[in-house]
Automatic annotation (TrEMBL):
Ranges of residues in domain D-isomer specific 2-hydroxyacid dehydrogenase NAD-binding: 142-215, 242-329
InterPro entries per the UniProt record, alphabetical: D-isomer_DH_NAD-bd, NAD(P)-bd_dom_sf
Lineage per the UniProt record: Eukaryota, Fungi, Dikarya, Ascomycota, Pezizomycotina
Keyword NAD: yes
Name of the featured protein: D-isomer specific 2-hydroxyacid dehydrogenase NAD-binding domain-containing protein
Protein keywords: NAD, Oxidoreductase
UniProt organism field: Endocarpon pusillum (strain Z07020 / HMAS-L-300199)
Length: 367
């Protein structure tokens, strides 16, 4: 009698057009999964202030819903068993009575932790952590070279059709060989960053909240792309850990030349870098600006600011030693293929086999 996997209804809600190659591959690979794709558009979704949703969640504006679906917003979720989205959720758990898996296309979950689905249920939540490393590492490398090679100054000379003179028009650049690179948060992003900068001759100093004293504890247990990152955790010259200010300050006192911060945003990491930390190196923005103005820091590359969007009046916009981008360092043409065709497909396969899901969120830790 029976046998096989139960029917699943996968609902994908994203503000992008459907990539039919991805959804057709899911249907072909998992014939018991019915896939429904619901597209939001940049012009017809709105944030929590308008919809009374938890921070970061979004859904279509009421006046545009009829053009997007014949269903009301709650009805979209009625039969859904698996939801894949950045931040579009049913308003209450009761609107999705059959939901048994939530897959987020983001690495972080800070936009979701106050939602009733997070606080009032035990529905498994997985993230797309592990896909961002290549793109963000390339962004970090680009930003590091822009700052260390004085590229902004040389570009201004180019626009003026001026050749320029070393030492007079721009300082002598240094290379990265032998530089000490600190990585606060040694997850998939930090590990790929370590791989790239190790190849340039840098020494890696890792920092994590929990100690990693054994080879097995240093291994990457999350999803990661093949042949990338540091899956065995062998690249760091030194590994620091802890959750106190003293622990963090010990790490920051290692005479670091470059610091990359790739920590998950949780209550314990919010505001973790302030004046004391920038005195050792420097993250509250006002303290960061002071450190940049006084040359306490030679430069900063920021893809995340507080608030976002960064207000036009912020001094960061006009600082020559700052690279500033609008929270886009992870964006790549391969993003959906990796998040859906990679992580989600891997977890559907694992559910078939009855094994532990990859990138499963620990509600207690907030990531």
């Amino acid at each position: 009698m029976g046998g096989g996997m139960p029917r699943e209804n996968l609902l994908i809600i994203l503000p992008f057009p459907e990539d039919k190659a991805i959804t057709e591959n899911i249907r072909k690979r998992f014939p018991y999964v019915d896939v429904k794709y619901h597209q939001l558009t940049q012009t017809n979704w709105s944030f929590e202030a308008e919809q009374g949703l938890p921070k970061g969640c979004f859904k279509p504006r009421e006046e545009a819903e009829s053009s997007l679906t014949q269903q009301s917003w709650p009805d979209l979720f009625k039969d859904t068993t698996i939801l894949a989205t950045f931040g579009s959720f049913p308003s209450t758990p009761e609107d999705a009575p059959n939901l048994n898996l939530i897959h987020l296309l983001s690495a972080g979950i800070d936009h979701f932790v106050s939602h009733p689905l997070f606080t009032q249920t035990n529905i498994p939540i997985t993230t797309s952590s592990g896909i961002h490393g290549p793109t963000i590492s390339e962004w970090i490398l680009m930003s590091t070279l822009v700052l260390s090679k004085s590229y902004k100054k040389m570009y201004e000379l180019q626009k003026q059709h001026k050749w320029g003179t070393p030492h007079k028009d721009f300082p002598q650049a240094s290379d990265l060989v032998g530089k000490k690179v600190g990585i606060a948060g040694y997850g998939s992003i930090g590990r790929q960053f370590a791989r790239v900068f190790t190849s340039l001759g840098c020494q890696i100093y890792a920092y994590t909240s929990s100690p990693r004293p054994t080879p097995s504890s240093r291994a990457d247990k999350g999803y990661h792309l093949p042949h990338l990152g540091d899956p065995d955790g062998t690249l760091p010259t030194a590994w620091y850990s802890g959750t106190t200010k003293s622990d963090l300050h010990t790490f920051l006192s290692q005479d670091l030349d470059i610091l990359a911060i790739s920590l998950p945003l949780t209550p314990s990491t919010r505001g973790m870098f302030g004046k004391e930390e920038w005195d050792l190196l420097s993250h509250r923005q006002s303290h960061l600006i002071h450190a940049l103005k006084t040359a306490q820091l030679s430069g900063a590359a920021l893809d995340v600011t507080d608030p976002e969007p960064l207000p036009p009046a912020s001094e960061l916009w006009d600082m020559e030693n700052v690279v500033l981008t609008p929270h886009m360092s992870a964006l790549t043409a391969d993003y959906l293929e990796r998040a859906l065709g990679g992580v989600l497909v891997e977890n559907l396969r694992r559910r078939e086999s009855g094994v532990w899901l990859v990138n499963l969120v620990d509600r207690k830790h907030g990531y």
